Amino acid sequence: MFSKACEYGIRSAVYIALQSMEGRRVSVNKIAEEIDSPIAFTAKILQQLSRSKIIHSVKGPTGGFEIERARMDEVKLSMIVHAIDGDEIYVGCGLGLKECNANKPCPLHDKFVDIRNDLRNMLENTSLYELATGLEVGLTYLKR
Questions:
Q1: DSSP character for 26?
Q2: At the top level of its lineage, which domain of life is listed (predicted)?
Q3: Model pLDDT for residues 78-89, shown as the tens digit of each residue
Q4: Burial grade of 42 (CB within 10 A; 0-12, 13-18, 19 or more)
Q5: Of 11, 32, 111, 133, which is most buried, counting CB atoms within 10 Å of its CB?
């Protein structure tokens, strides 16, 4: 459903939030290791998240990535998805057809519109804090 970059972006943000709750900044190498992602690819994703002001990058010997606790409530999954994949998930055809809309619907169009609306609702109402605390109590895992 999400691109690989988006999956890694979500996992990165959750890991950074979890570490930030413990008062730690985390390096790109540690993030890549923890989410099982290539370092260069992870660095590119973190750059996108940082430019979108989802995470904060601190340079220097004690630097790394972090996110303020108050910001964790404000950051919704939809913001991470938008920063990495844009809005394609909300507008693409369920069958991948180029021409699919209300005027020329594919066989799945009407059902897929409902699914997409539910997905948008979930992404817009799920906070980074919610995911990080779920991970903290062992309800989710970062590695496959």
A1: B
A2: Bacteria
A3: 999 999 999 888
A4: buried
A5: 11
The Cα–Cα gap between 90 and 52 comes to 19
| Domain 4-136 fold | Arc Repressor Mutant, subunit A (1.10.10)
Residue whose entry in the numeric block shows the structure tokens 């069958």: 95
Q: Which residues touch 34 (CB under 8 Å, ≥6 apart)?
A: 15, 142, 143
- Type of residue numbered 131: L
15/66 Cα distance (integer angstroms): 10
Per-residue buried b or exposed e for 110-136, using 16+ beta carbons within 10 Å of the residue's own CB: eebeeeeeebeeebeeebbbbbbbebe
Q: What is the DSSP string of 35-92?
A: HT--HHHHHHHHHHHHHTTSSEEE-STT-EEE--HHHHHH-BHHHHHHHHHTTHHHHS
Prediction pTM value: 0.87
As given in the structure block, the two tokens for residue 69 are 């606790």
| Cβ contact 40:82 at 8 Å | no
Residue 28 confidence (pLDDT): 96
- Read off the pLDDT band of 102 (50, 70, 90): confident
